């Protein structure tokens, strides 16, 4: 058997209905322990058809190998006894766009070999985390006659499945883990193959394993190694080994479990027990309302205010009109880029595009003081961390800068953020945007889309690690990108599909309605209720949910104005 693969500052508190319950504290976050094994589901009636031709049987094998039930029982039915014993399907799954196969020369009566190939689009790692990849899969599969029926006698270890089979057999669910400040629940998207009645236990099992490998640099963990999930018993989800876990840590972990189950459609109330007692003292039944302050759902993130930048001026967009914002930012006429936080703090770049002078990066507050951060030839649009505790921008296309203002003295400190880019990536960064929780970053480099994880150093500095390219089919044609409140990405392009939705894990992208959009889409923005784009002619908006093929309309108050949207958060 032969195979090759070429792969290119606000503290969250819990709100309790029962007096005496703990709040979500402000230090560590839970860790999880045991290895996750999906619960066995009822194996679909499958197996080789009688007298099936070898190429058709091989294709059916690849379809069957997408079902992990009972240690891949359905797929093993296509193998000889020896091949079944030797085949190891554990480890990550390779996802290809489609599988092609060609008969190799040298076949004889009762024996045949096939060259199998496919374009790699991603991998699904242990625990269901999807990682986008790009490359080619090639393998040789040997087949032989067994009692007059074709069976696979030799194959590489591991599982290869077509992208359509991933979507048919697996379902994406969100796990939630607290960030390092224990303020925000961070989404960790996983692909799970599970029977509905076992889904809750399977998701809790994944929580007990902890964050996916890619996300771990951004998160912390605190549960002892003795902690374990012991299953569902008499309507309660039970745990053991929590004797040394504080009430604050228990409350945080309970919030993770409750929001993970609720987002997967598992109805509450949720009874959580540890070592025979309620996981959280005094709370026998838990609901999402008990952890409403930690809600990760977009509808509880809060509505945003829309601002717009046009002709160097920044305005606040009201019901059907616009008004200049307060202070220096509102009176300026040379603003080229700006980000605005929910409390009126702003970070802006001043300087006319194309002039010979350096641009100026400033921080300020509506109607208040402002400070110059630095000057450079060019800057990207700034982006705030949660709570506006720090602001990032890219100077001269290469240097990622992070500026923090001292709460005590008001002085500014700016440091460079190191980024570990994939090999061969060396273009200028034209877009850099932090996610709502500040744990992820999206970048546009040379017209390509990349996402990375923000790692905190012991010194308090930041770096960007685990960077992957998304939406590779659009390579070279991407101009703008922004995080949507649900964690997906809104992407603007120069192509005939000018606006795309890209999933948070990069597993898929979807063309959005574009009937009345004229490419290029140079700017995008999103609030919980509305999406905004700036195309070749105007600033347009559409509801974030609703009709399948909605019409993009000009923003009231900005008709006939080509402005850039800014949504505060």
From TrEMBL:
Family: Belongs to the LpqB lipoprotein family.
Membrane topology qualifier: Lipid-anchor
Gene label: lpqB
Major site of localization recorded for this protein: membrane
Cited InterPro entries: GerMN, LpqB, LpqB_C, LpqB_N
Location in or out of the cell: Cell membrane
Matches recorded under PROSITE patterns: PROKAR_LIPOPROTEIN
Domain GerMN as annotated: residue spans: 200-283
Domain of life of the organism encoding this protein: Bacteria
Organism: Corynebacterium wankanglinii
Secretion signal, residue range per the UniProt entry: 1-28
Name of the protein in its database record: Lipoprotein LpqB
Keyword terms of this UniProt record: Cell membrane, Lipoprotein, Membrane, Palmitate, Signal
GO cellular component: plasma membrane
